[in-house]
Amino acid sequence: MKPISLSMAATALALAIFAAPAAAQEAPRWSFAIHGGAGVIERASLTPEQDAAYRAALHRALEAGSAVLANGGSSLDAVQAAIELMEDDPLFNAGRGAVFTAAGRNELDAAVMNGSDLTAGAVAGLTTTRHPIAAARAVMERSPHVMLIGEGADTFAASVGLEQVDPAFFFTERRWRGLETALRAQNLPVPERPAGAPGPMAESTLPAPPLNERKFGTVGAVALDSEGRLAAGTSTGGMTAKRWGRVGDVPVLGAGTYASNRDGCAVSATGDGEFYIRASVARDICSRIAGGTTTQAAAQAEVDDALSLGGSGGVIVMDAQGRPSFAMTTSGMYRGSISSEAPAGVAIYGDEDLRP
Fold this sequence. Notes:
Number of strands: 14
């Protein structure tokens, strides 16, 4: 989650986009929303092909989650299904396609939370578990703990049968090139390519999107199922060139991930993790909603508060009536929503409404 400096003027122009017209959001039986990260995402920075690739990826994730909900599945199952799909998609900074640490490793964080009973699970610093979101759920359901980290978290995930992979599985060339650029800018040494990684690719064959993208690639989902249960989940590779075992907001319950039926909300965040932790962004959004603030106003006010500390990013929020809201202090956020009453819609840029 690489910090982005925004001027006060840019802050004043920060955009909050509703997921769909209010009439289409009345009393859905189930509802689902996702994000694929926020940041400086300008139209000029993505080719038409890259734009289309992101939209297609968002639609696939929406389809995965909505299929679960339409068949009577749980909100937690829907969240996991969509996030696992994004963890396997190199377009996103989560799972395969995660950014690299300064040491040349992929260290993965994730969290899930059940709104109905406030159970939760989180993992940080995974290096061999294919789907960190599945590991987070396993911590919640199959251990007496809430958070596990590092080698122990991978060992636990393997012990409960979750798929393990060689660390090179998470390698992508464009993320490696991004690490090289970041380390050189900081006058830090570039590590050797990871064991098992493919050889360097020619510049002309590098996959999209461009290497100079500046976005928070965290992925997340929030859901309301037909039983009225809310859930939230988030997964990330963190920030490029992170050091010293840095952990961001994603696995910190109440910062990057939170769900509570009692408060009537589920939240997944993407942004400058250090500031989101300090501002308790996800939990505070729920507190604002429980206090009577509208979902959209609560979401925007909270990300603005985080920005006031120096951070930037965005959030997705689902309320107890199945109404999704999106708020951001950046020029874009990969996002989408669908419900039993409204068709799937996705968006990328901050001034854009969700569209099929």
